[in-house]
Amino acid sequence: MAKIILDENRFDAAFVKSWTNWQDLETGAFTAKGQSFESTIEALREHYARFTPQFAEKESGVKAEVIVQIAREIAAAGSRFASHLWRGSASGNLGGWQTARALTLLHVLTGSVGTEGGHNLNAWNKFVPKPFSVPPPQKQWNELLYPREWPLCTHEMSFLLPHFLKEGRGRVDTYFTRVFNPVWTYPDGFSWIEMLRAEEKIGLHAALTPTWNETAWFADYVLPMGFSSERHDLMSQESYAGQWIGFRQPVNRVLRERAGENFEYTYQANPGEVWEEDEFWINLSWAIDPDGSMGIRQYFESPYRPGQKLTVDEYYGWMFEHSVPGLPEAASKEDLTPLEYMRKYGAFEITRDVYRQNEKPLSTVVLAGADVAPDGTIIKEGKPVGVMIGEDAAVGYNTPSRKLELFSKTMAEWNWGEFALPEYYRSHIHRGAQAVSLGEPSEDFHAKYAPAVVWPADAQGEVYTLLPIFRLPNLIHTRSGNAKFLYEISHKNPLWINPSDARNLGDVRTGDLMKVHTEIGYFVLHAWVTEGLAPGVVACSHHLGRWRVNQDQQIERMSSAWVDLKEVGKGQWKMRQLQSVSPYETTDPDTKRIWWGDAGVHQNITFPVHPDPVSGMHCWHQMVRVEKAGADDRYGDIFVDTNLSFAVYQRWKALARPGPGPGGLRRPLWIPRAVRPDESAYYINR
After folding, report:
1. What distance in Å separates the CA atoms of residue 475 and residue 488, rounded to the nearest whole number?
2. What is the average pLDDT value for the chain, to the nearest integer?
């Protein structure tokens, strides 16, 4: 579609010329530096010439004429073209991050970035207030979170932690799994079990969780943690073109305090004495550093009562007084403190009409002492802070050039020059990769970007793409297992099969038992024959397949099956369901009314890790082999060989292109990351 818009001159030339770094473009023998904008656009057309509508039809199955029509509709929408990219495509496929870049290219060509009716950037809409005290950034780099192999990873790579520790990269002394269930949610859960039970790899493991989960079975401590209605919390989301902040409160505590009761801590009012997270970390920090000699306690002392323990009212009250523009004034008009205002209303709008933030003039304070580079970038203290657009100094975008980077110098400098422009390359579950997995040649498969699948010796059946990440609208990962009415609605995740594939697999009917082989094992579940998906694809929904290893403890019995979990050989794990969901007696009469008898099948645990060599994102879609189950197979059976899963990890890791990058950097300084270390930690030799 980008090719069509370029070829037919339907793009916003003024926007592209002003707000992209087209002068940096390099493609083939063409270098834009010193060339005209028009010649650069022509070079761009030549670069994308191979992506014809016919090529796109062959790859996608969408008719060429439909692709042309949609491209022209997008161009006609211009600056009011809006799109939405859920993470399904990006997280499902090898190179899925290119989906976002390619879609953004359409927004760039139409000038619909940050415009009314167009595509806004989430950083413009979210608001994060600063607390009263922030500790200095750490000066150590943790390669278990941001390893050298993936210097451009979009976030920390915790899903690979068991393999990192297996390689001997380190040891975790104390590990908190916070609202987090890696044994169930992440791929390769048996490798997590092996890690969590090995004291030489994990010292102490505490599971902070609002509901019991599979990871909790392997924790030293299980610490109940409050749901959203049982804790204080801040919220700010990109729900419209404005900035707002929301304040969640523990409902029972607030209600009882309004009735005249007093509580020191939220757990005293919560059912089951469940702690809220803020108070837990405050108290844990005081317990670790009771006299302040370690330098930890000072960040959890009251800004109003020096040397005294911080309360949640003081923590949020200070932020509302000092860090939320306009809130103190709005509260004052109602004779309320900012905290009282937020307790009363729960939300406050900071600003609206958050459009074209890139065009905001750079302040005189920021301009003071700054220099303008030859390309127009405004540099201060060695960092880009704005950009010259004609005669105007503007804030720009948060990129090295402060423009939208049509050509990514970062990709070029970090050994991925072939992807410096938005590109297309084939997923790991492309039909070419499927052919290679069966020993057939394919010109569509390139081993430098995707490893070939090596099937286990007993893997039989036809090869399919398994779609494992679509969601049921009433469940939330593993955090809704105690919600009885939600599990009454959804409690089964069958294997979706198109009728034509059902015929090819031996006249499969709905309810037949099927065996799905992955690269590291298999799982067994019922078929659901439906025209709700394309031929060549099978699907199994997320959320379901909960299990417990203890029959006696009444833990989420309405959503989980009691299983026999055994390591039948070194790294070889077998799970068999002993008892599924059934009615049982508790103080809640509804548990005797349970009418369903299924908890689903845990598919994620049979998936190997697939770390994208560029973004580091796990590529969730699976290439699988599907056959009818055998005489010895039972519903819910699972087998995994973690020796195979480690081998798959090694093959995917080999595709990555490790740092360091320019100047000995571990990671580009400009890419955001959580809990950012001191800049000195970014350099390997410093």
Report:
1. 11
2. 95
Q: Classify residue 257 by its DSSP letter.
A: H
How many separate helices (H) and strands (E) can be counted in the chain?
22, 22
Nearest to 157 by CA among 638, 639, 560, 614: 614
Q: Could you please report the per-residue DSSP string of 630-674?
A: -TT--TT-EEEEHHHHHHHHHHHHTT------GGGBSS-TTS--S
Mention every residue, 6+ apart, whose C-beta is less than 8 A from residue 558: 481, 482, 484, 487, 581, 591, 594
* Whole-number percent of the chain with pLDDT over 70: 100
Query: What 3-state DSSP class applies to 263?
Result: coil
Burial class (CB in 10 A: 0-12, 13-18, 19+), 183: buried
Q: Which of 180, 173, 149 is nearest to 163 (CA)?
A: 149
Predicted confidence at residue 101, as pLDDT, reads 93
- Tokens 């495509």 — which residue? 89
Distance CA 510, CA 526 (A): 7
Question: Does an H or E element contain 281, and which?
Answer: helix 277-288
Q: What is the pLDDT of residue 428?
A: 96
Tell me the pLDDT band of 91, cut-offs 50, 70 and 90. confident
Cis bond upstream, residue 660 (ω within 30):
yes
| CB-based contacts of 109, cutoff 8 Å, min separation 6 | 2, 5, 6, 11, 12, 16, 75
Give CA–CA dist 416/152, Å, rounded: 10
Distance CA 443, CA 436 (A): 10
Alpha helices (H) along 300-444: 312-322, 327-332, 338-345, 364-367, 409-413, 431-437
Rounded Cα distance, 106 and 99, in Å: 11
Cα 20–chain centre separation: 27
Residue 202 phi, psi dihedral angles, 5° rounding: -125, 120
What is the residue type of 356? R
| Tens-place pLDDT, residues 165-197 | 999 999 999 999 998 899 999 999 999 999 999
> How many Å apart are CA 399 and CA 385, to the nearest integer?
9
Sign of CA dihedral 522, 524, 530, 532: negative
Residue 573 parent element (H or E)? strand 572-579
CA 422, 427, 431, 433 dihedral sign is positive
Is 564 in contact with 493 (CB distance < 8 Å)?
Answer: no
- DSSP-derived 3-state class of residue 533: coil
Tell me if the pTM is above 0.85.
yes
Q: Which of 676, 600, 683 is nearest to 138 (CA)?
A: 676
* Phi and psi torsions of 52, nearest 5°: -75, 160
SS3 content of the chain, % helix, strand, coil (to 5): 30, 20, 50
Residue 206 to residue 286: CA distance in whole angstroms = 18
Q: E-strand spans in 504-558?
A: 513-517, 521-529, 537-539, 546-548
Measured over the CA atoms of residue 576, residue 582, residue 587 and residue 590, the dihedral's sign is positive
Instruction: Please give the pLDDT value at position 686.
Output: 62
> Using the 8-state DSSP alphabet, how is residue 297 labeled?
G
Contact of 566 with 601, CB cutoff 8 Å: no
49, amino acid identity: A
Instruction: Note the pLDDT tens digit of each residue in 221-278.
Output: 999 988 889 999 999 988 899 999 999 999 999 999 999 999 999 999 998 889 999 9
**Which amino acid, one-letter code, is at 568?**
V
3-state SS assignment for residue 479: coil
For residue 554, the model assigns a pLDDT of 63
- pLDDT tier, 543 (very low <50, low <70, confident <90, very high otherwise): confident
Strands 622-628 and 546-548: unpaired
- Per this entry, what is the length of the chain? 686
